[in-house]
Amino acid sequence: RSITLMPGVVPLALRLPLTGKRNVDGRDRARGSGARFASTLTFEDQRYLQRCRAIEPPPDLPNGQFDVVAEVKTVWRILRSASPGEALVVFSNRGLLKPELIATALFRLLPRRKRPLVVVYGDLWQVSTGIRAVVEKTALRLIDPGVAQYVCHTRSSADFVQEFWSISSSKVTVLPYYFDPRTTNGSHVANDTGYVFSGGDSGRDFGPVLRLARERPDVRFVINTTRLGNRDVPSNVELRAERTEGYAALMEGAAVVILPLRTDLRRGVGTLTLLLAALFEKPLIVTSAFGVADYMTNGEHALFVDSSIQQYRAALDCVIDPAQKSEV
């Protein structure tokens, strides 16, 4: 959720026609004298900090928790701080209520000349079924007229958003997820302390990984997630719940990385883990989930598997086989 991970969003926002005045209150601070866009996203690059007026988002809570009161406050902060004609960069997937999208819909109540130019960043929603799908499509019809540009991580996402949500291709931009190695610690030399690492929360299916660990008691597994709870795991599996730098450090110390993404999703997940594995030069086993092929080539950057234990088993045997070390 940091623009450091996808800095192209900012130049995109700054290319939009900007005519409004800055409107800064005590809570949402102006950073620098030439602020030209507002955002609920976190910025770390000083070039962007001096142009961004930050709007406080709701907290990012672990274990799928939400702070609904904070989300409502975020809607209010966006509405009262966005300036007419100013670019406003918001995140599409945040929270239970999706406060940034609610604010985007409410801007339609204003005369067009008083609305900000909204850039929606993220993969929008996973497709639902039944009454929820009807509600979501109706909500998007309310939001879409107030959006100047949608930004997707992958071409797969962009094509899907245009087709399923019926959004004009002229409003959809693809900017690949980006990772700046300078934001991590360490030398980024491929360390190998002998364990298999798997991790993450969103869109993961750890069932096959646990089964694989039971089949290979001679191999140590480290799984970093909050989604397994008190689930019974094999004795050769260590459960961790590190965040950010701790997560990266565990991956950097691994011999192999397994990324067990769900294959039934139609939104991108696990992209940062993909890029970290590449940065740390780790053999990567990943399910051929939505959007993965936009970043990785099977057999070159990673080994793609489906969700079957047979393919997981064959891939792990391949990457840990001493005879295959030079090829891997």
Describe the structure.
- This protein is of the alpha/beta class and 328 residues long.
- Helix content is 29%, strand content 15%.
- It has ten helices and twelve strands.
- The strands form two sheets. Strands 2-1-3-4-5-6 form a six-stranded parallel β-sheet, sandwiched between helices. A six-stranded parallel β-sheet has the order 9-8-7-10-11-12, sandwiched between helices.
- Helix 4 links the parallel strand 3 and strand 4.
- The longest helix is centred in the first third of the chain and has 14 residues.
- The radius of gyration is 21 Å and the shape is elongated.
List the strand order in the largest sheet: 2-1-3-4-5-6
Judged by helices, strands and strand pairing, the structural class is alpha/beta
Oligomer: single chain
Number of strands: 12
Strand and helix order: HEHEHEHEHEHEEHEEHEHEEH
Q: What is the residue-mean pLDDT, rounded to a whole number?
A: 81
Net shape: elongated
Radius of gyration: 21 Å
Specify the biggest β-sheet.
6 strands, parallel
What is the rounded distance between the termini?
32 Å
Strand content: 15-25%
Count of helical regions:
10
Provide the low-confidence segments as ranges.
1-7, 17-33
Helix content: 25-40%
